[in-house]
Amino acid sequence: MSGSRNFSSIATEILAQQQAVLNSLKVLAELESIEVGTTPFSVIYQEGTLSLNYYAPETISAPPVMIVYALVNRPYILDLQPDRSLIASLLSRGTPVYLLDWGTPSRADRYTDLEDYICYFLDKAVDAVISHSQQHKVNLLGVCQGGTFSLCYTALFPDKVQTLLPLVTPVDFHSADNCLAQLARCMNAKELTDTYGNLPGYILTHAFKTLMPMRLGLQKQLDLPKLLANREKALNFLRMERWINDSPDLCGQAFIEFMQWFFEENRLIEGGLQLGNRTVDLTAITQPVLNIYAQGDHLVPPASASALKDITSSLDYQEAPLPGGHIGVFVGRQAQQHLPDLIVDWLKEKHS
Amino acid sequence: MAEDPLVQMQQLLQAQQRLWEHFRQQGTEQQPWANLFANQDEIEKTAQTLSSQAKAYGEFAKAFVEKAQAEDINSSDHLQQFFEQFQQYREQLLRQELAIPEGFDVLFSSLGSQHQGFAAMPFMQGQWQHQLNRIKDRVINAEQVLTAFQQAYLEFQALEQQLNQQVYRKVEQTLGERENPPEQLREYVDAWINGYEECYQTHIQTEAYQQSYQALISAAAQLHQQTQHNWDEEYRLFGLVPAGDYDQLLERHHRLQKQVRQQQQQLDKLAEQLQTLQKTASKPIRKRRTTTKANKDGAAPNL
So what's the ipTM on this one? Predict the structure, then answer.
């Protein structure tokens, strides 16, 4: 290869890239707003920063489901846009959906702890769902950290839970391929909360990006012209970006406890998890369980999620490993059909 | 496109200049997106990233071609630029992640990793002797935490450099295995990104990296704490409630809230028990009433 061939192709490449940048800026200039979470809902219960949203299907033809989202990030990822919405997909299958949104804590919530979240707020929300849905129990679908909370809740309040559906839920925090857990163990949670009060959301966002700094940083930046090539692509990309960068702060005390009890001491597996004066023992879970996880998940590796198999007393335990990553498993276009079908069919079967 | 690489570079630079002139004019005359971006953080941020990234990438391409032109194109020496560029980029990311307080950031940016006692700095000269003890303590503490941060940063950067050297060798090997060298700059970049991520995944699992990262995060936290501590003192001076005192109030408030909830739960339980008792109690009462009625009717009591 001659030097001139190389220069020529690089010069052409840069010119094309600059042209694409110009085009992308034009596309951006024509965007009015980035709408997320557009499916209509009503708030049926509120306390503190928490709100419980009810999404009503046109006609009810499946059992209701209560979604418990994580404290990390915002739950509108489940309703990112009309054609990429787990909530809309569940509604279209006749499932009433209740979504627990933990809200955005302020400095005043610094001492809110895991007992408050699981034994008080979550319990209150479950009561509200039971009352609103006129069912005796709830079907709990916990996402990521919300799944971990749902496991604890079901073990502590088994009489209020009919079925349990952990989705991309970390159970074993010490599985071999868990880079997030390894990095998390590098952080002194007490020192961070002594410094900031609550853990600032931007630190979390950076921490997630640190897992793949070049791919999630430079590569994405260089791909921007492609990602913003037209209005539809740009909106898809920007909705996701908005969500990625929209991390609420984490209440200081809850953060310390989660880091210590789960990431450091792995108490769901090792035992000894105590919330207030209650001991969390996952063998108390006898409900039917559908454990859904993503095969390509780099945040919650399959081994971490599937560890649930051996630690409950459920005689009706099923696993559903799905293709995709931690978020793609429910946001990806292909996920819009398979995942809601799986959930609704399973719920119908358990309620038949 | 002409064959002479120099002519091509000229054309590229002129085209880029025209492009940026075009942006500049639009920015001053029409401001087509400025108004639209007013309340659109994500759009604005993306536009800024896109613009600065395009500019930096263009400049990098120019430097890369110049370097490669000066050497044998098949030599891997020009990969050194990737090494430097990526090291710089990673450092930027790290600085964003640490987000150290403004005052310390300015000092750190000017001092870098070179330690220099504050007392020797020009802005301290002549003032040092006249400062109140309070200020002296602050300066001494600030110096300590900044020195610790510099040390942690240096150690972390040394590990990052090792990582980049690993990546360098990996990319060199990958490119060496190809039949033809890449024709696009992006191919080089992608090779570096892939190589980096592969080496990084192993790197972050080492104890040395984890300890160094922990020390760095901790040192950055100490800078924030020192700043907060200084602010707390100022607040007290002006009779305001500092954040530390406010936190103590919040902690007490939280404890009270828990007690109230527990008492509420006990009350709910008692109410439940009372209801059960009332239900149980209401059955014999009805019986007695029935009995009374039966008695009134002259029937024998049901014993």
Answer: 0.86
